[in-house]
Amino acid sequence: MSQLAVGSLTVELDEDGFLEDHAAWNEDVAKALASTEEVEELTEEHWKLINYLRDYYAQYGVAPMVRKMCKDTGFDQKKIYVLFPGGPGKGACKVAGLPKPTGCV
Amino acid sequence: MAAKLDQGPPNYKEMLPPVILENYGKWKYHEIPRPGVLKHVSESGAALYSVRVASPRLVSIDFVRDVCTLADEYCDGFLRFTTRNNIEFFVSDEAKLNPLLDVLAAQGYAVGGTGASISNIIHTQGWVHCHTPATDASGVVKAVMDDLYEYFEEMKLPAKLKMGLACCLNMCGSTHCSDIGIVGVHRTPPRIDHDKIRKGTEIPSLVASCPTGAIRPDPKNKSVVVNNDKCMYCGNCYTMSPAMEIYDAKNDGIAILIGGKVSNARSAPSFSRMVIPFLPNNAPRWPEVTEAIRAILELWIANANKGERLGEWVERIGWERFFSLSGLPFSNMLIDDYIFARETFRTGAAFKY
């Protein structure tokens, strides 16, 4: 288990760099997480995807399927990989503070 | 510079020995001159010998290098791995065949796995690498193949016998369609870590992962509850959420399934069916498992017709005859009770006392 220092705050990360407790997320944490995912600056498009993921999770309690994510945000999969090189799961969901994807990944 | 992406695997034709490349699609017939050696003859008269050697699947780079050294010396640097993770050395020069076999024998490689034999056991990660297993893979496979080694080396079975091992019910590999399948099973419900669920689990996915609907959301607690009467310990919820630990050193073990096949020869492909619901995990040699498999195997050898796969033999004599011959206890655990189970019940009056 590692830790990530965000200003005066320290958040716990699991071994893959996901938030241990998804309630610990805020915008500064997102910026700090982005720097671990080869995202130098969170642009408006990044925030659109992050906010969409957070809204969807708050409403349904699950991360959206990739098809749903593309349809609702208007970004195709390629675009998502341009924004988050780690991909929709390891990249975008991590920065958005969603739980780590599970199953046979 | 960024790594080259999306390039796919190398073209397999770059790695074929010249004799295969020249005779690609022009093979006439093959024969098995001795166990572990295949001879393919092409229309042009060219012959290719392949020498099949066992591998434990989980190997070190040193092992791979040793195999490469042998391939360099006897096969002009060519070899392949089979779909059951055996190694095949290609010999196009007949004069090199016996020297290769001699050096393989001297260095302790096991030549075999052709024809009516037990070839390698297809298996999974087990305690070596996976987080959901109910048993080990490599250890059980080693114990079983040690016990049945004679059947790998020789072709003295009624038909080929394929074995698969999966360390949990995910059944990665081929246990559901093998003559003998070895599957890791749990016997206790998951232990819920409510705090972990609150901190980071997709509860709807967790609820949906249960095949029997035993998991209900518990909104007040922001967690879930498990109905233990409905749970049959598949462990699928643990795959979805790390908060549902299910492994249990005392109660985890192995179930044995028999009678599956994938080929269309003679009879249609079939699933394997459970005949032993539970054997304990008794590492490192799993004596109960090796004993049970040998007993089933020897019964099949003694009773099957030539060319009859294990499942075909049992279907011919009937399952109750199989249980009375084998002396295996038939318990209610073997009676299917999952949704469309009716198809597996007897709906006719034809049976033997």
The greatest interface between two protein chains, and residues involved on each side, is:
A-B, 15 and 12 residues
Name the helicity range of chain B. Answer: 25-40%
The structure class of chain B reads alpha+beta
Kindly give the count of domains of chain B.
Answer: 3
The main sheet of chain B orders its strands as 1-2-3-5-4
| Domains of chain A, number | 1
CATH architecture of chain A: Orthogonal Bundle
CATH class of the largest domain in chain B: Alpha Beta
What would your notes on this structure say?
The complex is a heterodimer of chains A (105) and B (353). Chain A is built from 5 helices and 2 strands; from the N terminus they run E-E-H-H-H-H-H. By secondary structure, chain A is mainly α. Chain A has one domain: Arc Repressor Mutant, subunit A (Orthogonal Bundle), CATH 1.10.10.370. In chain A, strands 1-2 form a two-stranded antiparallel ribbon. The radius of gyration of chain A is 13 Å and the shape is globular. The two termini of chain A are 21 Å apart. By secondary structure, chain B is of the alpha+beta class. Chain B has 3 domains: 93 residues, 2-Layer Sandwich (Alpha-Beta Plaits); 165 residues, 2-Layer Sandwich (Sulfite Reductase Hemoprotein, domain 1); 55 residues, Alpha-Beta Plaits (2-Layer Sandwich), CATH 3.30.70.20. In chain B, 27% of the residues lie in helices and 18% in strands. In chain B, strands 1-2-3-5-4 form a 5-stranded antiparallel sheet, with helices on one face. In chain B, strands 6-7-12-13 form a 4-stranded mixed sheet, with helices on one face. In chain B, strand 4 and strand 5 form a beta hairpin. In chain B, helix 4 packs across helix 9. Chains A and B meet through loops of A and helix 7 of B. Chain A: InterPro entries: DsrC-like_C, DsrC-like_dom_sf, DsrC-like_N, DsrC/TusE. Chain A: Keywords: Cytoplasm. Chain A: Belongs to the DsrC/TusE family. Chain A: GO terms for molecular function: sulfur carrier activity. Chain A: This is Dissimilatory sulfite reductase, gamma subunit.
